[in-house]
Amino acid sequence: MAVNQTLDQTAPHTADTVIRVEPGQSVQEALDRGGPGATVQLAEGVHSGNVVIAHPGVTLRGAGAGRTVLVPGPVAPSAVPPLHDAPPDVVSGIVVHGADTDTAGGIGEVAVEGLTVRGFSGAGVYAHTVNGLRLHDVEAVDNTIWGLYVRESSDIEVSRCRGEGSRYAGIALAFCSRADAVVADNECVGNAFGVFVDNSSFARVLRNRCHGNAAGMLLLNQVYPGEPEGGVRDCLVADNDVHDNTLAAGGDDPEALGAAGPPISGVGIALIGTERVSLVNNRVHGNQPGGFSLMPAAVVIDSSAEWGGSDAVDNSLEWNTITGNSPLDVRISVDVTRQRLANNVVGVSEPDSVSGRAAEGTQ
């Protein structure tokens, strides 16, 4: 049976101990002393300072998003690699990264649950080389660079989370070549990209709500200098509601939304250089650009060859409702015969017909 303890310098800590941390006490001290397998329970209230989870089997649990809040304060150092697309001195709210030589710098079976991470200069949560990661009921709000950012990891679950107000993505999988990920029942709003699958494969993106971003969902195969080999393959994007994404991202201003990227606005779901990605039963509506966009449609299937990637091939677009977007509902700029298109309800598209059924009033 687990033993409940408050944070106590003298109390023994074992793997089945639940360590309770009150506001004003050190969350990092509890994690360090708890070690592998510990559960650290954060009481309701505001906790100050970033934290680093460096041991396997750890659970960091709050009283619920909006009830337990982590904000900037004392900085806990970490050996995690620099955060992508960020200055070197940024601080992320929760870092999950270990130094276990048996797992090549990675750790496993870590859970973060029931809390809000707000106002950090890096990411709300930054997980790197984790095998077995669970983010549940985690709210990342107004963190400068990323919301929930998971890199080079596998066996990932992100559920019932919220990513809001970050320069890049609310939720991102980056360079997870065998992600085996489920990203489900989340909400993303006010970011450059709601959900970003960046050079990651074997992901299921299900029942999410993405609105008020520049692009609701972006799946991108692109080669970056000095980064691992990319590719986006064998993913399922199903039952999502992607609507009213109207922000403008990209440009030369280093502090702008989607800084250094190409101009994007009004995009619902984009498949760029992907292979064997299925879009099934998604509702994509009300997306329209609030600025210039290289992707003038709500659903875009295009090549990334000019960025070192590849043409989009063998993707499926089935049983989706894609209507009421501007200027186009769907634009496919690669070989349409290399995609599977069936049973969609679509308004205005390029080519003219990408579906067996057109929306009312467009025939």
From TrEMBL:
InterPro entries registered for this protein in UniProt: Beta_helix (IPR039448), PbH1 (IPR006626), Pectin_lyas_fold (IPR012334), Pectin_lyase_fold/virulence (IPR011050)
Family matches, as Gene3D superfamilies: Single-stranded right-handed beta-helix, Pectin lyase-like
Pfam families the UniProt entry points to: Beta_helix (PF13229)
Domain Right handed beta helix: from-to ranges: 124-292
SUPFAM superfamilies: Pectin lyase-like
Protein name: Nitrous oxide reductase family maturation protein NosD
Organism per entry: Saccharothrix hoggarensis
